[in-house]
Amino acid sequence: MSEQALVHMPQRTTLHRAAMVGNRDSVAALIQGGCALDLQDKDGNTALHEVSWHGFSHCIKCWSRQELTSTSGTR
């Protein structure tokens, strides 16, 4: 996806944009920084939907790590 195409997506978050292109480093940094994971675009899709649809398993692991971190702190 071109950078110009990404600029014209006002309904998508930075996490959505990083997820759409499989940018694991950005996805990981945003998740670790505490960004909202459940925000939806105008079609009702989250960033996790984007990485799943595009097959970016390396990005999906970022969500798994965040879930482990979140739940381990509450035990």
From TrEMBL:
ANK repeats lie at residues 10-42. Pfam families: Ank_2. Keywords: ANK repeat. The keyword DNA repair does not apply. It comes from the Eukaryota. InterPro entries: ANKRD31, Ankyrin_rpt, Ankyrin_rpt-contain_sf. This is Uncharacterized protein.
